[in-house]
Amino acid sequence: MTENFSEIINEETASQKLLQWSGEYERTCGHKPLALIHSYGCQQNVSDGEKIKGMLSKVGYEFTSDVNEAQLILYNTCAVRENAEDKVFGKLGDLKHLKENNPELIIGICGCMAQQKHVAEKIKKTYRQVDLVFGTFAYNDMYNMLWEIISKHDRIFNLSENHVDINEDFLQLRDDKIRAFVPIMYGCNNFCTYCIVPYVRGRERSRKPESVIAEVRALVKNGYKEITLLGQNVNSYSYGFPELLRELDKIEGDFRIRFMSSHPKDASHELIDAILECKKVCKHLHLPVQAGSDRILKLMNRRYTTADYLKIIDYARSKDPEFSFTTDLIVGFPSETYEEFCETKELIKKVKYDNIYSFVYSRRSGTKAAEMEDHISDKQKGLWLRELLLEQREVSTAWLSRFVGRTVTVLPTGEGRTGADYLTGKSDEDMIVEVKADKKYIGKFIQVRITKAMNWALRGELVEDK
Ligand code: SAM
Ligand code: SF4
Ligand code: F3S
């Protein structure tokens, strides 16, 4: 079993050997080796998955979504909540018989879940069908690891935590031809007490503005219409986030810019001003508040109070009374009382979010909150979550009606849920919009007059080509 790869062979040799191997494979089997790469979790992980695909395509792999025809199955995993991890363990269990029938099949997991020692240990002992486990710092070693497995049939566990320099010279294979994710920074320094991300993704590293700008420019040139800038807290981007937005706004072309996430402790008036003043930046802010009680926010180490948070909301709404906010919320944090949970309900009524992403607290081993006494049963947490969603449904039904009669810009990305002739897309405000329109409008900005507000989406009619 190999634990250290840097000495094995240098990266160039490994990629050449893989290329030779894949050529040989194609001559023998009549097709290139196929890889199934599936990313779980957040957009950052999806973006990493696109880089992995880029690396694999350089050494001759093509891609499939069918486990039965893959020679390499790699799950790029998420560790943010227990159910995300359970899903992956279930999938790995399902693959056992495939490996028994085809010992040459390589099964691997990578990403956030794989970065945790206890997960690697569990896989080492219990999931013998898995050949490859590597965390979020080891992508650059991928050719070495693969070649080691193919040539020696070793099992590899690479949990290196070496912070490598950001590699700007990568090829990304994006499945989506309309929307693209562009990471501007990696890692997180915030250590919210419930969250595993800083442990599995390391400290913050920002990409240089010139390489972000060059990437966005190239994407726009290639026809991408929506660019989402990614970071766990874009407001601590080392080179200034509002400035980056203003620079990207100057790029010519028919496209729009989104970003996520913003930590409220660092959200500034400059950020709101930049959103409102930049033409291409969507008029929407995802501002995760997590809880409505100051005691819980303190225990979460969020470093703001609800009053601080509401000041940002008030500033934006003083400039645009209908400014769109969305948020993330956690219910059932250790020691939260029902009264404190009700403060979260009060907060969502006060802010009036277009949408909330709410989660039941999940204990993550290694975090500070994991050591706090968690007296709330899962059943109770589930009930609170339901209660919160019902509250939000009421809020959004009333608040979303402000869109009725308004004309919004929508980027249709596929067929709608409403009916066969409908397309679905998002407005600048990040609202799902269903519109009766021809498929030729997919990937093109259209103007839609909103006729109906449902609690999950808006419905409207096509006005004209933009
Ligand atoms: N960096 C982002 C921020 O601070 O807004 C959030 C990134 S995190 C991957 C996405 C969301 O997952 C968080 O905003 C939080 O609501 C939720 N989350 C994180 N850890 C959690 C846990 N242990 N249990 C439940 N939800 C959790
Ligand atoms: Fe997790 Fe907090 Fe970092 Fe977001 S800011 S990734 S919630 S530690
Ligand atoms: Fe993202 Fe999950 Fe990792 S939310 S950063 S993939 S823990």
Describe the structure.
The chain is an alpha/beta fold and 466 residues long. The strands form five sheets. It has a six-stranded parallel sheet, sandwiched between helices. Strands 15-16-17-19-18 form a five-stranded mixed beta barrel. Mean pLDDT is 94; it is low at 1-8. Helix 13 (338-351) packs parallel to helix 14 (378-399). The chain contains 14 helices and 19 strands. Iron/sulfur cluster binds at residues 188, 190-192, 195, 197-198, 232-233, 263. The site of S-adenosylmethionine has 18 residues, from strand 13.
Provide a concise account of the structure shown.
The protein has 466 residues and is of the alpha/beta class. Helices cover 36% and strands 21% of the residues.
Q: At the first level of CATH, what is the class of the largest domain?
A: Alpha Beta
Which structural class fits the helix and strand makeup?
alpha/beta
Given as residue ranges, the uncertain stretches (5+ residues, pLDDT < 50) are 1-8
Please report the total strand number as a whole number.
Answer: 19
Overall body shape: globular
How many domains comprise the coordinates? 4
Per DSSP, what share of the residues sits in E-state strands of 2 or more residues?
A: 15-25%
Domain TRAM: 401-464
Protein name: tRNA-2-methylthio-N(6)-dimethylallyladenosine synthase
Domain Radical SAM core: 174-398
InterPro entries: Elp3/MiaA/NifB-like_rSAM, Methylthiotransferase, Methylthiotransferase_CS, Methylthiotransferase_N, Methylthiotransferase_N_sf, MiaB_methiolase, rSAM, rSAM_horseshoe
